[in-house]
């Protein structure tokens, strides 16, 4: 740890001023009610209000805020039984509840507020709802609203290692210092930082956290067995905030930890080994969430070694955790990372669908297939993964990357809210991807989807798989390296709760909480900097959906040919005449055919493929004219010049308000802006120069290219 107290992020003391200055009653029992009571007691002590703790149903006539378990609902919903509700109702139906009821009622009458919930988890969400609203919670007209999350699976995955990994470090793809959980081989003795983190996550609605890297190395594998005691300690911290802990496990554990000579999922001894391992885990952590598995991917072991399918592997683990209502999050990120760049027929983008689509319907009820949003790897621009639309009889989770591996590594100010919102709102069965009545990607992930093309029932039969994302947090003073990257974590949590929230409005919420009392100009500047920052980053990096072009290994900064002749399957095929990957059915790898209609046809045709994904689907000459009216080469030049100008404008906007926030925050932001400008300029010059040299076509506007 840095020794400096961690930044309060979106929960500074002042965020509790509206609650703390009132007469507040907390009523009801339960572990989380105690947490709520502590929060309220601290706030009222600080801001001069009054706090009392009562039993449910006791008189509370002069209270201005009552947070109470509902007397009629005090029995918590304990069952994790998967709902058999008819999922055909489509968008707008009430959330499927397949776990603890986390809903709450918010009632305001003549300026007094009552928050009521059937469970203490719901009540905690209700408390933070009031925190977010601040004074406006008490201001408005009388109201009676019920709030419920879109899904009960709202998860963060940490790629933290217990041991410092020789190349990946303490946190794989971590850009925020060390791990908050581990320090050079040990789980930290002092977990106070984890407690603060859990509180921040609870405030945005996250309710599950996987605490170790999906690349499970030797030491980390033992969290499941010898080091389980450490997981017990971490779980106890999260429990106070309504968050359940999950572990990433190695599929080879029966061999590496159990001394068996196989990990074959159909072997009885292997199955028994997992049954016993699960029994020990749940014995120690009764509310443990389940296992996350990266199998047969980038060197991680899996069922392929035994000629078994991923359903065989996942279902064997699912059976072991089923008695405890545990889940198996099985990642669909399976591809050949040892391919030959000379082989034009193998397409990494196809791999997840090719492996998983044939298995639709074969996974057990408690398996969630976790699908990265795009077919490659968290690029700034990719089409939606067709796997999400191809598994109507499987629980699918959408996986996002909050850590900015490919979006500026928390050196660059890149707010991902708009990207996620666009992904969540995409409709696979609508010609424009937005309007119409068929399900959005959010519907598919929250179990509300009705698949128009499902030949069987016309319905998605399995309940929700929910959301998962890679965390961007470390032991850095600001949690996330770049203070603005906090907004990504904030937005991810809020979008999991309600995927229809407006990403710009979420920025306003984040600013309001994080910089309480700051002049309006601060919020305006944050919006001016971040609203278009995703698009800006796209402009100065890899063009038109082609992806990668990053330096191999660490993935920061430009290297147009960095991955061109490597085994990783991420190519752009630029030559003197043109660029792009032909993924059409007619002449290319056939990937476009993995989409349902109408998108299969839309992507297949050069005349209908959206500009921003053109090079993902087609190989075209530099002179090809886009829908925008520009040639591909001129588009590359223009966007790269404009991207850098926009970074300069962002810096200008922020400089107007930089003295209005905490100087430490301000100093860190300035540092990062200097690096963003340097790096964006480097991107611009390398990409433009590369394509000028390849194509020999000059910039129409005669700007400097080297
Ligand atoms: O994005 C890539 C990363 C790997 C990561 C992998 C994955 C944990 O470069 O570091 O491994 O994806 O998602 O499994």
From TrEMBL:
Start and end residues of each Glycosyl hydrolase family 67 catalytic domain: 144-479
Glycosyl hydrolase family 67 C-terminal domain mapped to chain residues: 480-703
Gene3D superfamilies the UniProt entry points to: Alpha-glucuronidase, C-terminal domain (3.90.1330.10), Glycosidases (3.20.20.80)
Record InterPro entries: A-glucoronidase_C_sf, GH, Glyco_hydro_67_C, Glyco_hydro_67_cat
GO annotation terms (biological process): xylan catabolic process
SUPFAM superfamilies to which the protein is assigned, alphabetical: (Trans)glycosidases
Record Pfam families: Glyco_hydro_67C, Glyco_hydro_67M
One annotated Gene Ontology cellular component of this protein: extracellular region
Any one Gene Ontology molecular-function term assigned to this protein's record: xylan alpha-1,2-glucuronosidase activity
Domain of life from the UniProt record: Bacteria
PANTHER family linked to this entry: ALPHA-GLUCURONIDASE A
Protein's name in the database: Xylan alpha-(1->2)-glucuronosidase
Organism listed in the record: Promicromonospora soli
Species classification: Bacteria, Bacillati, Actinomycetota, Actinomycetes, Micrococcales
Name of the gene encoding the protein in the UniProt record: aguA
